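Hi everyone, sorry if this is the wrong subforum. Our group has a chain we'd like a structural model of before ordering constructs, and none of us has done structure prediction before. Sequence below.
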Amino acid sequence: MRLQVKNVRGQVVRSLEARDDVFGRAANPALVHQVMVGQQANLRQGTAATKTRGYVSGGGRKPRPQKGTGFSRAGSIRIPHWRGGGVVFGSHPRSYRVRTPKRMRRQAMLSVLSDKAREDQLVVLEALDLDEAKTREMVRMLSDVGAGPSVLLLGDGAGPGVLRCARNIQRTKTIPAYQLNAIDLLRHQSVVMTLEAVSTIEALWGGTVKGGRKAYEPAVESEEAAA
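Answer:
Right subforum, don't worry. Here is the predicted structure as tokens:
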């Protein structure tokens, strides 16, 4: 997979031959959906709770006689269909945990990342250097490189002052490359990353997995760098 490398002005400076097993994987929508549902379920605390009629205070006395009043035969003022009564089939503390193996999360993330690269929604920056560490400069840079309305920024190698510039930009999230995941990739339209972030991603998730361990392989350098 050949990726274009741009500067902060949006100009293409060179091309990069990235790993096909990272940026050129085939789409797998079923796996991506399964991992997405699992990760979102694991974020739920599961602390919602309601009271049944056994936990609602009051209701120890029969509110009215069984017969002779013409009303319903109520045995308690805390029955579910009365106001202030208990809740039937309500929420109770439980675990929403869904097991998503590490290999599934890895393959789903690389599948979404490859889709971003094929659809020209992935921008690789030579370096994230701004003239000033200002939010307006970050907004101008994202506009010049053609980033969409929602941006996931992987600014490995950039200074902390530059990364702070993205805090005030709506629908923009900054994370290091080692925290990349399928949910953040799906929630943002464009992905902007530095060359150092590309190297980190290839080193972490490139290669094959055998026997539960990943066999690392050297990354393929671009023709310009090799020359």
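For your construct planning: The longest strand covers residues 12-17. The radius of gyration is 27 Å.
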